[in-house]
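Journal club prep — side note

Before the paper discussion, L.F. wants everyone to see what a predicted structure for a comparable chain looks like in token form. Sequence:
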Amino acid sequence: MGDNVHTPPLSLWRRGLLYEVALRSPYLRRDPLDASRRSVAIGLVAWAPVMLLALLEWPTTRHWDPILFSLPLHVRWWIAMPLFFFAEKVVDDRLARMSAHLRESGLVSGESEVRLSRLERQTSDASSSVLIEAGLLVIAIATSVREIQAASDLAHTWYAAVSMPLARFIFLRWVERWVFWTVLLLQIARLELGINAMHPDRAGGLSALALPSRALSLVFAAIGSVLSADMAEHLSPGETLDRHVPSIITYAVICGALAALPLVAFTPAMIRAKRQMLLTFGVFGHTYVRDFQQRWLPSAKDSPLGSSDIQSLADLGNSHQVVAGMRLVPFPRTFVFQIAAGALLPLLPLYVHTVSMATLAAQLVKVIF
């Protein structure tokens, strides 16, 4: 137990290259995970110079640079990036709550708690490695070389050399964190867990594990906002989203799977806990019902009025229903649909924009009636 007394809270974001830069910034050092301040700061680096350089070309060329009206550019830095940063803070807060729940609930104890503390330290250290993030930044820059070479003016050069590498770097950081989060869940699933099939959350007490994963809907909404803006920019006048429907559905399915699949690692342990509790209940229930029958049926000498035996029999049945209804995954059925809905939400304004009011009204009437 002493091994984890001074274990810092589980975190995937409170270290790393970007975090260290924020700590050294007078504007961000008070709270390096402040989403609004980080959004403004990175917007001044990645968005503002592009706009300024494009505006400065007007006196020479006498026409407005199309990049000034690029919807994906504006959405990426003033909608997607704030969502990315806000999701980081939400995930970190929920990771701390999840970690505390595992200990306070007794799901992990003794040697398992020591191992959990070790796993959390290793995950925090690995996921926030400055070396790994530097490698991600190199990849982000390397994938932008062709765009940099194709840039025709200063605005597009800044966009290709600074803005896009930064956007790709932030996206790659999320991919990296998802990988480490998945690995951590796989390792936790191998611990000796005190899963209780009678827990009222119908998940053996493991429902808190889904808390950080729910926040992924913010990340998918951020990505979806850029996808929506890109589609809007390339749609022809009068064109609908019909030809994009397969891609949109595929995107929603992938988002739901990415959020849910790591949690499926707990299914084997949950199946074992449920099966064992049903067997235990079977033995106990048989004994209780037999004694109840012998005392009260078919003809009882004493009046059953006021007896706690009958209420206990009802409670036994209710408890058995809880065990029998225990899910085999630590999230409810609506979890995947909620994640998919978050991913698709940014596409709703585009859908409404491309569908006529008459068609939309007809579809609403059909849904309601």
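L.F.'s comment for the group: The longest helix spans residues 154-189. Keep this in mind when we get to the figures.
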